[in-house]
Amino acid sequence: MSKHAVVESDERAGERAAEAVTRLTRWHDDFPTPGVRFADLTPVFADAEGFRAVIDCFAAIAPDADLVAGVDARGFLLGAGVAAALGTGVLAIRKGGKLPPPVVSREYELEYGSAALEIPADGVALEGKRILLLDDVLATGGTLAAAAALFKEVGAEVVAAAVVMELEFLKGREHQGDYPVSSIVKI
Prior knowledge:
Layout: H1 13-24, E1 26-29, E2 37-40, H2 42-46, H3 48-61, E3 67-71, H4 74-86, E4 89-95, E5 103-110, E6 113-120, E7 130-138, H5 142-153, E8 157-166, E9 181-186
Parallel strand pairs: 3-4, 3-7, 7-8, 8-9
Antiparallel strand pairs: 1-2, 4-6, 5-6
Helix pairs in contact: 1-3, 3-4
């Protein structure tokens, strides 16, 4: 498949993806800490039709992206699938301390603590690249905003971001940049 492969439009992909996410998501109260309700998307990704619908949705968001970037760890699965569909490369945005130096790092706040994200500072040509940024859940917005800031710092442009699930009550969308943010399911 060539770079910028044509992604067939599937008007029902969004509906199929939303149905799969709604039906297959497992909810866990008080995980990883008391007061947090965790959305486990593992069953969605393990379901062939559900996973395909999610990938089709995301690939249609930015078919002209040069690179797909997925946030550690479920974003890796999404990023690889979408990159294969688009005919682009994929970049794993890692949690702090998981990449050898040199790295570009950004700290951010979670709804239950703080963390850091990293991308390679060399070895991957990122300047001027058009990035499709993917993650599983948009909660308080810190993770996605930190990932986007990493790409801005190295001279790349986030042309769109997408998540499987958005927890609207946490207002994470308010912390995003001027790139469009898409979500399959909003809660």
